Amino acid sequence: MSKPALFAAIRTLRGRTGAPVGAVKAALIEAGLDVDAAAAALRASGAAAAAVARAGVRTATDGGVRAEVLPSSGGGGHGQGRSVDDLPAAGVVVEVAAETDFVARTPAFGGVLDAVAEAAGRVLRGGVGGGWAWGGHCRFGGEGRDGVGQPGVVTIPPAALLAMGGSGGGGGGDGGDGSPSRGVAAALADASVALGEAIHPRRAAGVVAPPGGVVAAYIHGRVGTPTSGGGGGRIGVVVALGGDPLPPGSSTPPRPPPPELTHLAHTVAMHIAAAAPAYLSTDTIPPCDLAAATAAAAATPAAANAASPAIADRVVAGRLAKWRTEVVLEEQELLSASGEGSRVAEAVAAGGRDAGVDGLRVTAFVRYAVGEGDGTEGGGA
To answer: Which of 186, 144, 180 is nearest to 162 (CA)?
Structure first.
């Protein structure tokens, strides 16, 4: 083979995949300068690297999180998150694992996050209508305070994301040359080749607001250079708010929520990112976690050495009440200048009344932080 032909093929394949020169040259020589065959070989090697990471041979403990509101059928676009027409407001949050934070800060990795989030949105929209029963995850005293397993949260298996084909346009999963998205698996394989690390979707979940509700997303600690307004961060939150349901049999369609509720939902999302609640309400604490918290309170010296059982019961009750203010979203004090010391439930209800929405409350939330949890909340890879 001639050197000019080899150099031209290297330039072409480098531009298509972004893979290192050495890997590109080796693949082209192996394929006899067939660019398409060499590109397929490079993608296969990237997919193998991701598979190795999922098998635990190469540990991908870093990465990034992407949270976004799904566009509505009314043309609202990302970020508005208000229920209109036939689609309820919804949002997704995904975590994509990488081996180092250096890779997680690259624009290429941001594009992968965008592609995975876009695929999660399509999975969520395709499954709206059922399948989000409370899983009752027991996690007292552990990591992974993310809201998954709570009512209104839809877990999305990573396998479902990998099976998603290209969207036919937009999103961060294109081939880097403006072509339509070729699908999550191909985008991950290309990124693994280009960045030289194992990259794979670790977990994903979504929330769907009640009719007339609102959804907000928040990303904290942004990393890298956002692509197409996307990219990710270290913490991602989606939260859904909704008011009182319409009476049974009502023929009146729900009103689109007032725009000011979007700001309120965003405030709650920022609070969730900072306060890391584990549960939505006291009613959603799994019995196993409540039993563990009760046992921990009873084992404290103040309760164990109490003068009488009645005093011990009061000590346990007081410690449980304090614990609930730390881990239950509705019981936490809203971390906002406008909250004025109010509990989240009170502040949301008051904001709803000011906007003319009765009974406004948080109906679901998900909070992901890079590396937290065991990565199985989304159903496994």
So the answer is: 186
